[in-house]
Amino acid sequence: MPLIVQKFGGTSVATPEKIQAAARKAIRAQQEGNQVVVVVSAMGHNTDHLIELAKQVNEAPPAREMDMLLSTGEQVSVALMAMAVHRFGHKAVSLTGAQMGIRTDNSFTKARIKTISTERIRRLLDDGNIVIAAGFQGVDDDLNITTLGRGGSDTTAVSLAAVLRADACEIYTDVDGVYTTDPRLLPEARQMGQISYDEMLELASLGAGVMHNRSIEFAKKFNVPIRVRSSFSDAPGSMIVSEPESSTVPVCGAALTKDEARVTILGVPDKPGSSFEIFKRLADRKITVDMIVQNIGEGDLADISFTVPNEELKETLKAVKEAVSVIGATGVTHDDAVAKISVVGIGMAAQTGVAQRMFESLAVAGINIQMITTSEIKISVLVQRSEATPALRAVHQAFGLHLKPSDAKQWQIGQKPTNDLSASDIIERLRSSNMEQLTLLDISMVGDQARVTLSGVPDTPGLAEKVFKQVADAGVFVDMIVQSCDGYQGETSISFTVPEEQMDHCMKILKAMDYKFRKISGSMDIAKLSVSGIGLRSHTSVAIAMFKSLADSGINVLMINTSELRVNVVIDGKQGDLGLACLQKTFAASLL
Ligand code: ADP
Ligand code: ASP
Ligand code: MG
Predict the structure, then answer these.
(1) Considering the entire predicted model, what is its pTM?
(2) Range from 53-57, 93-97, 291-295, 524-528 carrying the lowest mean pLDDT
(3) Strand-pair category, 371-375 with 481-484
């Protein structure tokens, strides 16, 4: 019999009436001949209220007790949902995370799922019950209650769909599907027919709150097609599958992370191991770091900037100050009034001028870019928080995201996923003792790239746009771009990589620009090492393990960029082979 997992988010179960409406949807699915598992979030803003309550008792509550408290929100909703199903004359049993056998690690408030046992759920389903599963929670090996992080009920739903080999996984929420950006911020956002796992994973981790990013890691790893749809209508919604909606557009969506903070460490000795000393302290605290930018040092000192979620700033500064005294850096600055705007699209990898189009739209809107990082399928910029929404609008408009691509695909109802993974691959992954463990797909080196660095770039709107317009107009294919802030007073530096054979041409163009930079330098002798996999940004340990492995062999990291799909580092070309060997050794156990 087909099996379907339905997940109802907080707004979809906010009132007794809405709980009854959700129960009816589940019953209808059962009557259509499916076995049904329903995953439920806490009612309305209950989780927020519980957090508020905890803070009134203790400003810094212990994480274990926080999870004990937060898990009660979902326990209330599953019981009520089961009662609603009974009221309509059908059988239902509610289960907590522990009762379902969702085992996690013990990192309270951000626990990762290790295993899920399906026996009890199967038995209940075979007995004709609708199984009502509490989202967002599990238990560790000592039976302590854990939670998966805000928005984690999506991850419960998709992971259950994976282990139960469900035929469908439906995420019912308060919007009609996945939009090109948050429709609450930009009413002109367009609902997509479908979006690829890679794009959704990237967008979710860059701020598109419609799906918990880790749920998409599961979806991709276990090939679970997800339908995101409205609780309040029968509209078909959007599918998250392996194929993108369009193969011609460079960008499919834009996202905003409003609560970002920037930290810069000044005067870092530019030698192997410095980055590792900094980032290991953040990884130990499970702080998700993004936009790591290191400017190419002048003299023997470099500045390293990165962003973290604002709520983790305090903890981050504590960790960083420790590192500063160990490595002998000169100081730390931070800015807690910044926001990150990102565009994402599989198509950008094959087109030139995409970054320039983004920078141009911001320049025209008079918005200053404080930092830039790019990777294969995303470009992120940091701007002042007060300019976040206008910046998002400018970028959304520049890529015509409100318009439906001419080759837009639409996933058909009942269509089965084309399987890149064989059934045996999936079973093998499921058998693993740790479902959310790091999955790496490839470790590689590219040796035919060159680096170009501009120092002394004034920190004013429009300059990045001018630089990359000239470069794009000349047909130069720009790969990694990083711009950092705060190097010298009011100045920034921009580094990027280009194909080796285009470096001379590129340098000539830059030297001919009417703006004179303090210094334009370049190097043909670089190697780019890449580790690719699934969910790499949220597995903070990857970048750390790379830093450590390279530092242990005396290799200095010159540039770095990270995305959910890949971590790239640029090192001295002479050390390329050694670096590659180090990484292959370090990650041998995690490679699929
Ligand atoms: P639920 O409680 O159902 O899990 P969430 O609030 O977590 O709901 O997610 C739905 C919200 O996500 C929407 O109301 C919308 O404001 C926001 N959102 C952010 N980015 C997007 C996007 N790209 N597409 C759709 N919704 C988005
Ligand atoms: N109730 C939890 C939260 O508000 C989990 C979820 O809704 O997905 O974050
Ligand atoms: Mg949610």
Answers:
(1) 0.94
(2) 291-295
(3) antiparallel
